Amino acid sequence: MTDRHHVIPLNDSRGHVEDGSPCPCLPRERDDVVTHNSYDGREIGEVCAKALDLLGIALVHHEHTWSDEEREAYEHALTLLQMHYDIGEPPAGIGGVTAVDPFDPSKGNRPRR
């Protein structure tokens, strides 16, 4: 059995469980690395913005035609994240992901029909 490595947020408001028992922060585990979430929620903006960008990219690659409602919801969510969390300009290529504008036909995306 390999040892698991724990990535823990600095200066968190309380301690994290590293003994193999469940940690209340609901960490993610990949291979043998356990990435803990902060208790103060400092990564919420980055995580949500990255998820929105990845979903937008996935929909573009599946030739999804965005409705006005979907576009408005996507842009509203990114605007709120930008306003409340320091995520940069949307789409920001967060987490090393090069974001694709799902609404720009000049970038190879499908225009609305």
Notes on the structure:
This protein is an alpha+beta fold and 113 residues long. The chain folds into two domains: 40 residues, no CATH class; 64 residues. Helices cover 31% and strands 8% of the residues. It has a three-stranded mixed beta sheet, with no helix packed on it. It is elongated and about 50 Å long.
The total strand number stands at 3
Cα shape:
elongated
Give Rg in angstroms: 18 Å
Total number of helices: 2
Strand content: 5-15%
Structural class, judged by helices and strands?
alpha+beta
Order of helices and strands: EEEHH
Distance between the termini: 54 Å
- How many structural domains can be distinguished in the coordinates? 2
Largest sheet: 3 strands, mixed
Describe the secondary-structure layout.
Layout: E1 5-7, E2 28-30, E3 33-35, H1 44-61, H2 68-84
Parallel strand pairs: 1-3
Antiparallel strand pairs: 2-3
Characteristics:
113 residues, three-stranded mixed sheet, 2 domains, alpha+beta, 3 strands
Question: Brief overview, please?
Answer:
The protein is built from 2 helices and 3 strands; from the N terminus they run E-E-E-H-H. It has 113 residues and is α+β, with helices and mostly antiparallel strands.
